[in-house]
Specification:
single chain; alpha+beta; five-stranded antiparallel β-sheet; four-stranded mixed β-sheet; 27 helices; 19 strands; Beta-lactam/transpept-like; protease; carboxypeptidase; hydrolase
Length: about 700
């Protein structure tokens, strides 16, 4: 029932309590007239003047992550594992235990217990620590420090050791007791208190520790849980000290005897019970996302979380944004296409199984929007231990597909020839630019002694002279992947322009050596056109998607929409696009990129390709793309695109760049990427590429 104390007695209580608290924290006392004014005003203030969180507690809520259909659940995020329950669904012994443990005079005081505060002061003077806060005051503190609508600074202020904060807590507690019954306050407290091991509220705690609802808690179990709230991390028998938890349980049982809730005999029997736990894990975050041959959603989830932490809409700092994701109750509809993802995951694991040290990360992007359709790799996104000597397989949480953290990427070989072709087309060359490509080409770039040097200069060679040497133009130079043609072309245009083109299309240099070379010595980076810089399947797919979208670059995005708990849409995730290429330049590059995949350019200039199986797999649908092999077949790559989808895959050993995957795997990489493209465009209209103008042909 609501407290029956008079406003005058309540005013006296609040005033005296404020002074006592001020002494307890050893802070200079406020002037008497100011203190009197503050407490009088607070004691008489209306319930409606309380912070909204106290009138209608905005408890932290889970955020839900869905695939692009808006119904397929990927995972949930939460920092607060909580399920609110009514008092009638909480065992009476649990209610009695929490009162005995935290506030024996709960049903006697009006929100502030002067006797308890005096006892705390005496204990402090004796060198020990003892809390003077009532359950009501603790409830106020818990609500304010967990209010997801407040900033991190505001939540931290709810636990500051200051006179002002303590007086405010007392005022709020008194106001709450004017309008709420004791049972309502107790219910709120039991639903918000932290019990350790990630469990907030008694319902989550009873499931976490004993795998049962709170209505079924025994006396010994209830006493254990009630004892945890004073120091959850220290007393938790799962994550802390089990002996300390049992000692605290004994204290609670003795306290229940003191309050008359149980007898001495009942307490002794409960103390004698062994600690029997049934810990129940709570799925949470990306490691809880479905992980199988048709899913493998963990790496996409990881990419989304990394994206989220960069969005100012969710907070001023990464920490605030993380809290928003885990406590804000958002509904996130992502760009993940379950069908495309399933195909990508099956293809990745078909080339290399989960236990293979080599990997095939695959990324799929929608041109013209930047929507990331799939991120797949033959790894389990998991924190589980790996066998001895296996750093990142079969389990890892390193972002092997999109890059970031410790993952710098992989060499993608001749797929980088696209950037040379674009730079040349943009700087006055045409697709018909011809050169009699030799087997080996002496260049002006200095090189260390080795196989690829001629008189101290870098001297690249063609991989298959019989098929590649001779007079080439951009069409067949790209189709047959003629190294000496493209190195020559890059020399004519300027390697710095080629490097800048790659960056313009979204290639990020995550490796420090690459970033330094690009910044300080791009003009002399002769081998750049052969794909020696590290990249990722996502960057590569999105760069080619820019060409597919006729020069419109769209930043990759993992979300379609984000909706706040109140139903308002958060303004994030919309396509962020800008023109980075003249449309005719992009069309010309696409025309030449028809050659590698076994199709024909608009003027019939293709005469051989390195990935002709793609045309068969796509059943003649217009498609373009490029293969890539790094030196000694350390990596094998393929990236392909239609106007509706761009997909890239790079076979590599993420843990050992010196481990060559071998040229034989390239055909399987090509097939895998082509199958993903096929799934992505299935059911969509057949769209044709626009031919380039005569000026560039």
């Amino acid at each position: 029932m609501p407290s029956s104390r008079t406003p005058l007695s309540r005013l006296f209580t609040v005033l005296l309590a404020g002074v006592l608290v001020g002494l307890a924290v050893a802070v200079a006392a406020l002037p008497g007239n100011l203190l009197l004014g503050l407490t009088a005003r607070s004691a008489l203030q209306a319930y409606a003047d309380l912070p909204a969180a106290l009138r209608t507690p905005a408890t932290p809520q889970r955020s839900y992550l869905y695939a692009n259909d808006g119904t397929t659940l990927i995972t949930t995020f939460y920092d607060v594992n909580r399920t609110d329950v009514p008092l009638t669904e909480i065992a009476p012994v649990m209610r009695q235990a929490i009162v005995a443990a935290e506030d024996r005079r709960f049903y006697e005081h009006g929100g502030v217990d002067l006797r308890g505060m005096l006892r705390a002061l005496v204990a402090t003077a004796d060198g020990s620590t003892q809390g003077g806060s009532t359950l009501t005051m603790q409830y106020v503190r818990n609500v304010l420090k967990n209010d997801p609508s407040r900033s991190a600074e505001e939540r931290a202020a709810a636990t500051e050791q200051t006179v002002g904060r303590k007086l405010q807590e007392i005022r709020y507690a008194a106001a709450l007791e004017d309008r709420l019954s004791k049972d309502e306050i107790l219910n709120g407290y039991l639903n918000i208190a932290y019990f350790g091991s990630g469990a907030y509220g008694v319902a989550a705690a009873s499931q976490r520790y004993f795998a049962k609802p709170p209505a079924e808690l025994t006396l010994a179990e209830a006493a254990l849980l009630a004892g945890l709230v004073q120091s959850p991390d220290q007393y938790s028998p799962i994550d802390g000290d089990a002996d300390a938890a049992l000692n605290r349980r004994a204290y609670v049982l003795d306290s229940m005897v003191t309050t008359g809730a149980i007898t001495v005999e009942q307490a002794d029997r409960a103390k004698a019970e062994e600690l029997t736990l049934d810990p129940t894990g709570q799925p949470n975050g990306c490691t809880a996302a479905p992980d199988g041959d048709d899913t493998g959603w963990g790496f996409f989830c990881d990419y989304l979380r990394r994206w989220w932490l960069e969005q100012p809409a969710f907070g001023a700092t990464a920490e605030e944004r993380e809290q928003a994701l885990r406590r804000g109750g958002y509904t996130v509809v992502t760009t993940l296409d379950p069908d495309v993802q399933a195909t990508a995951q099956r293809q990745a694991t078909a080339v290399y199984d989960y236990d293979n040290q080599r990997a095939l990360p695959i990324a799929a992007v929608e041109p013209g929007t930047g929507k990331v359709l799939a991120l797949a790799v033959n790894r389990h996104y998991s924190l589980a231990a790996n066998p001895d000597g296996q750093d990142n397989h079969p389990n890892t949480v390193n972002q092997l597909v999109a890059g970031g953290g410790s993952v710098e990427g992989y060499q993608a070989g001749s797929t980088f020839k696209l950037f040379t072709m674009l730079a040349a087309l943009e700087n006055g060359r045409t697709l018909a630019t011809g050169f009699d490509a030799p087997s080996r080409l002496p260049t002006r770039y200095p090189a260390d002694p080795g196989d690829a040097t001629c008189d101290g200069r870098w001297c690249p060679a063609n991989a298959n002279p019989a098929w590649m040497d001779g007079y080439r133009m951009m069409w067949d130079g790209f189709g047959r992947s003629v190294n000496t043609y493209f190195v020559w072309l890059a020399e004519q245009v300027g390697q710095d322009k080629v490097v800048e083109m790659a960056q313009r299309l979204g290639i990020t240099f995550r490796a420090q050596a690459d970033a330094t070379f690009a910044e300080n010595n791009a003009a002399d980076w002769g081998s750049f056109t052969l794909g020696v810089a590290a990249t990722t399947p996502l960057d590569l797919a999105n760069a080619y998607a820019t060409v597919a979208a006729e020069g419109l670059y769209c930043a990759p995005t993992p979300v379609l929409s984000v909706t706040a708990r109140n139903g308002d849409r958060v303004p994030v995730g919309d396509p962020s696009c800008r023109r980075v290429l003249d449309a005719d330049v992009a069309r010309a590059a696409t025309d030449a990129a028809r050659c590698p995949v076994g199709q024909q350019s608009s003027s019939g200039q293709c005469n051989g390709g390195t990935a002709t199986a793609v045309n068969r797999i796509l059943d003649g649908r217009p498609v373009a793309g490029k293969t890539g092999s790094s030196e000694r077949a350390a990596t094998e790559s393929f990236v392909g695109f239609t106007p509706q989808a761009a997909v890239a895959g790079i076979a590599a050993n993420p843990d050992d760049p010196s481990d060559s995957v071998g040229a034989a795997v390239q055909a399987r990489v090509i097939t895998g990427v082509a199958e993903v493209i096929s799934t992505a465009v299935e059911g969509q209209e057949v769209r044709r590429f626009t031919p380039p103008s005569r000026e560039l042909a």
